[in-house]
Specification:
Elements lengths: L1 E8 L5 H10 L8 E7 L2 E7 L13 E2 L5 E9 L2 H10 L10 H7 L12 E9 L4 E6 L8 E5 L2 E5 L20 H7 L12 E3 L4 E6 L5 E5 L14 H15 L7 E4 L4 H12 L6 E7 L6 H11 L2 E7 L1 H15 L8 H11 L5 E3 L4 H5 L3 H9 L3 H4 L4 H9 L3 H9 L3 H7 L6 H6 L8 H8 L7 H26 L4 E3 L5 H7 L4 H4 L7 H7 L5 H4 L10 H5 L15 H6 L4 H12 L6 H18 L4 H12 L5
Parallel strand pairs: 13-14, 13-16, 14-15, 16-17
Antiparallel strand pairs: 1-3, 1-9, 2-3, 4-5, 5-6, 6-7, 7-11, 8-9, 8-10, 11-12
Helix pairs in contact: 2-3, 5-19, 5-21, 8-9, 8-26, 8-27, 9-18, 11-14, 11-18, 13-14, 15-18
Length: about 625
Amino acid sequence: MCGICGVIATSGMELESVVRSMSASLEHRGPDAAGFAAGRGWALGHQRLSIVDLSEKARQPMENEDGSCALVCNGEIYNHLDIRGQLLADGHIFKSNSDSEAILHLLEDGSAGVARLNGMFAFAFLDKRSRKLILCRDRLGIKPLYYYRWPGGFAFASESKAFASLPNWRASLKREVLGEYFRYRFIAGEETLLDGVTLLPPASLLFLDLDSLNVDIRSYWDVSRIREAPLENEDEQLLELLRQSVRDRLMSDVPLGAQLSGGLDSSLIAALAVEAGHRNFHTFSVCFDEGDSEEKQALQVAEVLGTKHHPIRYSEADFTRDLVAGTRFNDDPLNHANSLPMMKLCREAKKDVTVLLTGEGADELFAGYSWHRRMARFERLWPLAGMMPLRGVERLVAMRSKAARVLAFAGLSRELAAIRASEWVSGRALKAVGIADSWREETRKARLGNIDAFDLLFAALDVDRRAYLTNVLHRQDRMSMACAIESRVPFLDHRVVEFSMQLGRDALMGGIQGKQILRRVARNFLPAAITFQPKIGFRVPLSLWFQRERGLGGLLHWLHDERAAMRGIWDPEKARTVIAEHQTGTADWSDLLWVLLTFEVWARLRLDGESQEALCDQVYRMTELRDT
């Protein structure tokens, strides 16, 4: 796991010095070493986190035998030994035991070789012979890669903050995406909150001509849902795929462990790691002094598996102190409140391990979210709700009642219901602070693509895989990389993903619970209390904290101060009213307040250019945290 960056420019820029500055902004991703290479019109940078082959021979940028090609890579290739063997037989000469070097030699013969890679990766391959640059991102978008274009130049980086080192850079907000951002907490597809900054889509290759700067983007992998007869022995097939995926992700020359929430997904991954032979295996969990948690379940699983467990406590004061630093590391606003406790977990885990296995991806593949259950339920209500006027639908969506929300979604078009199933902040809530509930065709395309919305459960799953999953992976990458921890996600092995796309409804939903096939697989390893418990999730007690004027609630002043007013995104007086209603217990606006506050913190860092130190000092003063 590392940080990569590069600049291609036709003239007018000291490329290597710019790339050195860009790379320095990514040092947290790879603190073990920094490497640079430059040539006519190009420069590459790399920050190294040593995982496989810790020697100097594996430093990047790395070149092939004759120096005609160069590579910088972020990620891991789990089948690199198989690829290496084939390349050696073809006459290639390797200088190291690094998994990244397999990519370097594989692409000498053309970009088609990326289809052979099994792993998580984002890389830049530069061919000096043809003067072409290839950027590539893994199939599911586990590892990030951004690019920025201007007349006469092109830059790429693992995180968009690196572009601030460009001489021509000016951070500018892309206002047309704000409606989607506030409703969902993230933007689907390749767009970002910053004008001109583009996220390379998962499973994509970008080809850049170093002289003309012409760009061509192609997809190298796609997976479609197959609804045929039930698979034979599907439980056994899935178990074997997961076993292989976990074994592959235990590849490491440094210590590794696992995040263990106590829920089904992370517990199953930890169990398979222990089964593979890691008896002195470290597991880590984090919990709050207030609110719900799965602390007891995590301890129970650790005891059953015999892991060396590390329970980590996290308080409101810890959360508030980490808010600014977490936002800077996240690159975007902190859309998930549990990002900060995740960063704390990784910070503590770094004392013992460098690699963590996680359970991310299971909910999106096997129907683990509450909205998946809603989709399955209201298919039966569709004829009744189809005659409901849209205004009535929106009113029902705003209600807290689960039944009301089910009926409301059934009143939407099937396509719109699939998209809006995972919305976080309702149009009514946005209207309460004066934010227009805009809806763009780009939003529909990025979230739906060409999926068949006839079956709403599968439509919602496909939307999540295309859109929501990338957002979840963004959080995992940024919070772990902030602490120089490599996160690995066994559920997102592309073979597991392809298998999941063949499963029928009965394999996913049973009664009121999703992930039925996972529960059946897990019962061979875990107590029934863990295997069949409802999904709890990691709940941060935001509603309670926002009710207090001291601590996190003290920062809500930012939502109606002069700077927020000048930004002109929401109405400060309406925000003041919403805050008062929440703090007096008249209404629970915690989801809305969180998305507004985290956006404002991000805006002060990225748009206003305020330093982390200065903003942290304000947090301490406003929340009275200095002496706690």
